[in-house]
Amino acid sequence: MKTQLELNVSSRGAMSGVLTMGSLDPAFAAATGVDGGPVALDLSTVEFVEPAGLCGLAALLEYLCERCEDVSLALPRRDVPAYLERMDFFRIFGDRITTNADLESLGERRRHNPGTLQELVNFHTEEEIPGIIHRISEILENQGYRLRERVAICSTLSEVCANAAEHGVSSFGAYAAVQAYHHIVSGSRRRGEEVLIAIADGGVGVRETLSRNPKYAEETATDNDALRHALEMGVSGTGEIGRGGGLALVAGIAARSGGSLSLRSGKGRVTVYESRKNSRNVPQFPGTFVRVSLPRTAVSSQQETKG
């Protein structure tokens, strides 16, 4: 008998029809109970996929493909399959899952590089990271970010990716995806630009990584405790000088721009905004997940151009 995994795709508001990481929570909760038989995931209500949803879906499918004899994906017959093809999703998973999408016709579509996205990329080693970071820098430059902004963002994201490669020791390593948008930016109703960055790995998670350092024993009682501590400067599982700044710096950069950083691992999730830090319990995530929102309102972009 086929196990049907459910989604929680919002049907109202600005996030209506959008596949986010949170949309996959019911599927992740049920995935821990799969018994090796066929599994189906229904994405027919999805109208739009953001990078976080794409990386989350990749991590979920990696988890399922290792444990199930057959994994099927039902997609809407609209723009979503074309977007997934453009983001290289089917190049990675096309031979590993069954789907109702016509992959042959999708593969024949003309592709172009709009300068606003980094396709879904799978990486395992630090040697692969410079290419990812270079692409992120290009996207930021295309969106008008100044050199010093790009250097700050990319240097810290490089450490986040390095953490994913180092601690994401699993069969699939880590995934990253990036896209820039022109829409209503996060946290406000002002129109502007926003760059969304998502990174997911299949490693042991933040709590176990930090618990290897004895001085963090009191800070890792729960997954959320470990996540909040990991967002402080200088905190790393290795204890090496110069490590442990990436997450804190990226969170600060995102918050100052009116965006956010969301860190998820195990059953915890912590999101950092400009003036607050929220944590909540969520279904088990097999590894560590980072989502960064970097918005720029039209007003701030014009002010920086004049400066």
UniProtKB/TrEMBL annotation:
Question: What region holds the Histidine kinase/HSP90-like ATPase domain?
Answer: 148-298
The highest taxon in the source lineage is Bacteria
Q: Which organism is it from?
A: Rubrobacter tropicus
What lineage is this protein's organism placed in?
A: Bacteria, Bacillati, Actinomycetota, Rubrobacteria, Rubrobacterales
User: InterPro entries per the record?
Assistant: HATPase_C_sf, HATPase_dom
- Gene3D superfamilies attached to this UniProt entry: Histidine kinase-like ATPase, C-terminal domain (3.30.565.10)
What protein name is recorded for this chain?
Histidine kinase/HSP90-like ATPase domain-containing protein
